[in-house]
Amino acid sequence: MEKVYTAVVTAKGGRDGHIKSEDGVIDLELKAPKVMGGEDGYANPELLFAGAWGACFLGALGSVGIRDGVNVTQATVDVHISFNKEGTSSYALSAELHVHIPGIDWDVAQKLADAAHKGCPYSKATRGNIDVKVIAD
User: Which SUPFAM superfamilies match (predicted)?
Assistant: First the structure.
């Protein structure tokens, strides 16, 4: 495997902390969501993960679209990252990726979404580790 790019982000303080990228592009205060005892109006790890996965997934979908000759430039994906309790002190993530490709029949959209899920680096990283559903809307 050949490294193409490495992102470096320093995190301090956990869910009620701060993250800053080495290049200064990201410089965010984090808070747990209100439902988890935090405050509204702040980023949290699940929001950041959802955004990053969605952007990466659309990149993979674009590659699949080019390969299959289908225009997916207007596609969107709503990534739902859930923080789930698995017992008294154990937690796990789950995800749903809701993919919308305007002007495409549902069965073709689902096939393209499934192919993108196979190739997306974030999807590969989570495969077999968390429950993930990919749903064409």
Answer: OsmC-like
Task: Output the pTM of the full model.
Answer: 0.94
Domains and CATH numbers, the chain: 1-43 (2.20.25.10), 45-136 (3.30.300.20)
Supply the pLDDT for residue 77.
Answer: 98
Tell me the C-alpha distance between 98 and 54, whole Å.
10
CA distances from 6 to 2, 21, 22 (A): 11, 11, 10
Cα–Cα distance for residue pair 43/50, rounded to 1 Å: 11
Read off the amino acid at residue 4: V
Pairing of strands 27-29, 76-85: unpaired
Query: 62-117 pLDDT, tens per residue?
Result: 999 999 999 999 999 999 999 999 988 999 999 999 999 999 999 999 999 999 99
Q: Which two tokens stand for residue 34?
A: 């209100």
